[in-house]
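Summary for the steering committee. One of the milestones for this cycle was to obtain a three-dimensional model of the protein with guanosine-5',3'-tetraphosphate bound, which we needed before selecting residues for the alanine scan. The sequence and ligand used are listed below.
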Amino acid sequence: MDKSIQEEIASRRTFAIISHPDAGKTTMTEKLLYFGGAIRDAGTVKGKKTGKFATSDWMEIEKQRGISVTSSVMQFDYDGKRVNILDTPGHEDFSEDTYRTLMAVDAAVMMVDSGKGIEPQTIKLFKVCRMRGIPIFTFMNKMDRQGKEPLELMEELEEVLGIESYAMNWPIGMGKEFLGVYDRFNHRIEQARYDAEERFLELDEEGELKHPHAMTETSYYEQALEDVLLLNEAGNEFDEERVAKGELTPVFFGSALTNFGVQTFLETFLQFAPPPQPRSTKEEEAVSPYSDEFSGFIFKIQANMNPMHRDRIAFVRIVSGAFERGMTVTVPRISKTFKLTQTTQFLADDRETVNEAVAGDIIGLHDTGNYQIGDTVIGGKSSFQFDALPQFTPELFVRVTAKNVMKSKHFHKGILQLVQEGAIQYYRTLHTEEVLLGAVGQLQFEVFEHRMKNEYNVEVRMEHIGSKVARWIENEQNVKESMAGQRAMLVKDRYDNFVFLFENDFAMRWFHDKHPEIQLYSLL
Ligand code: G4P
């Protein structure tokens, strides 16, 4: 491989920010883009109120509800690195897309609202990162507000999430009395309020302020010194290897809104966040990012991003090699080749044509309905497929029909496309062939209904059949239709696999006792 391409690949850092809604993910993203020079003023990117990002009509829903349900990709350069941030939808109801985005990153930044601690959505997203074994960096946000005690927050990380932590810095005071952080990693104090020269204060060998300073008079400083001593003696050691495996999370305290600690965080993060990693394939051999052949996989498909062009965009995470506009790729699943001429890259607030990209980058391919979530694309002669993306066990189900039976063709076309995009999961009943849809969260149904109307011109009727416990079957050949009943619906998924939809956990256990020979399993 060309040396310059190798260097390009080694400079990539691709990550996602995960958080519970309102923890400060958007604010953090803005600040990072600001440092990266991608925007002039922090505070101009996809402001929920300015709606700058709302370029497609299905984003109407997010505008109306003041939430963010789409993910996008942002890129900037910092310190010789090219940073790709994959934004993830923050709303707790819309998590499948987020989960899949996490399959395309090499690291995650977890934002925690220090007033609230670890919240439910953070737990779910964290689990997916944990499963992948990617490094996770924690930012304890909103230190400019009175929040939980820092030691309590560290304890929560370990107890609620079960991950060990290392405090890279430690807050000195909090809320109105937030004076800055004791930076253990860089061995200095970073002040929250300072005149131009005094942002960093030096520490002596004992770890105390080297020169006299008003801060030493405060109880907050004393407390921070005491806590740091405790951490030094009883806390975990910083261990780069364990960080890389996702076993130890480096923790940073700061405030995204007041821009405190963000730059130091970014610099340290970039030092330890991994470059593009190899990816395993169904054929067993993992593909190295430095393999000469271009390859990647589709982790997201989004239709009609721009109402002016009724197009679909397939988001590809490049796994190996370099992409060049106009190249031909193969999709092994369908053994078809495509010439990639219409490609896009996502910048802060614009879509630009991309000519070149390398492993670690994300590109958007114009799609006329050929691609599916999870597809592998290969630029050379090889034929292999990357490991399948996980499917998530839906919990909510609706029975869906077209209000106007004459629209049946559009209805099925719309469903097919939205299912391919991974926007919703498809099931059908046996014999009666009724269409059931499954989702992880209620909002997915609302987006589905909205898009069917706006994009396919079909009004749908959705009848809630409530939450169900969906279980797939290991030994399908043993399944008999007579096993189904009121509390255990038997349906088929889009791949024609049997699925039982149990009324609740109790019904599932009852079934299990009655039919111990049937081996049930759930997806993620
Ligand atoms: P999200 O993307 O994770 O959902 O969170 P977002 O950045 O939108 O932040 C949620 C709210 O928290 C916003 O206030 C934001 O200004 C505030 N916030 C973010 N970081 C900090 C911080 O470090 N300190 C403090 N005090 N607040 C912070 P909002 O009033 O809901 O929205 P807005 O009116 O500011 O847009």
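Key point for the committee: The pocket of guanosine-5',3'-tetraphosphate is lined by residues 19, 21-27, 48, 90, 141-142, 144-145, 255-257 (CB under 6 Å).
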